[in-house]
Amino acid sequence: MEARVSGRAYGSHAATSGLGLFQDAHPKCQRCNNRRSKEAHHELHKGHPARYDWPFMRALCTPCHIEVHQQMRVLVTITLAK
Ligand SMILES: [Zn+2]
Ligand SMILES: [Zn+2]
Asked: Total structural domains in the chain?
């Protein structure tokens, strides 16, 4: 595990800089550990104050991101069927 600090200067895109740094820190997909991470998955729902905290985010490649959301859908179905 590396804990490198990016020496890159901040641009003017303050709103998206957090996501850029997150994917810089996790260049590989955290699910398959095989492909490049392309997207950030948020484990917390929209509007949650900790949604942008790194422990609640996953850097994923596109196929894994799709799979994670498909699994979430199944979980929701099971919960409702109970
Ligand atoms: Zn993946
Ligand atoms: Zn997602």
From this structure: 1
Q: Is residue 6 part of a domain?
A: no
Residue 14: DSSP 8-state: H
Tens digits of residue pLDDT in 19-46: 678 999 999 999 999 999 999 999 998 9
Give this prediction's pTM. 0.66
48: domain range?
14-81
| Distance in Å, CA 82 to ligand 1 centroid | 31
46-72 pLDDT per residue, tens? 999 999 999 999 999 999 999 999 988
Q: What's the 75 CA to ligand 2 centre distance in angstroms? A: 14
